[in-house]
Design a protein that fits this description.
By secondary structure, the chain is an all-alpha fold. It is built from five helices and no strands. It is flat, with a radius of gyration of 21 Å. 14% of the residues are buried.
């Protein structure tokens, strides 16, 4: 077997097993729980990061006119709501994977608080899309963004 084919064979074997690298060195395997957490973090990156980027872009877009702001918001909205859906789905998956009867009351309280700020973040974002004035949109957008950041902090605390 040629050296190139041997290298290819080792690469694909390593890819399938995810236990050794291409040189045969041991690496950590990726579990379903790791994948679940990865997807949850990706959703949080887009939901929270998208809100933060929007906050920074808005002052730059405003001088270009209201239609420009609305056009960018229309393009960004499905991406952010898609990320929120990923967060809800993977959050439910995370809850199903945890035996709450073995968790401390502090953990359970922190989890309840996190779930509360997630509901507030999503609800405030929804209201933000429905109110008529720029002032009200600003308030509801800020509530959504700040509670999204609080949910990230609580998620880090819960993950240990």
């Amino acid at each position: 077997m040629s050296a190139d084919r041997a290298t290819d064979a080792r690469f694909w074997h390593c890819w399938r097993s995810l236990r050794t690298d291409i040189l045969g060195n041991p690496v950590l395997s990726i579990s379903l729980g790791d994948l679940r957490l990865f997807l949850h973090v990706c959703g949080a990156i887009v939901w929270v990061g998208g809100q933060m980027v929007w906050t920074l872009l808005l002052p730059v877009l405003r001088p270009l006119g209201g239609e420009t702001v609305r056009a960018v918001a229309r393009r960004l909205s499905p991406v952010l709501w898609g990320a929120f859906a990923v967060l809800v789905a993977t959050g439910a998956w995370n809850l199903a994977a945890v035996d709450l009867s073995t968790k401390t009351s502090a953990y359970q309280t922190s989890l309840a608080l996190k779930l509360g700020v997630v509901v507030i973040s999503g609800g405030a974002a929804f209201v933000h899309t429905r109110v008529a004035t720029a002032h009200a949109r600003g308030i509801w957008g800020a509530v959504s963004g700040l509670t999204a950041l609080a949910a990230v902090l609580l998620g880090v605390v819960l993950a240990g």
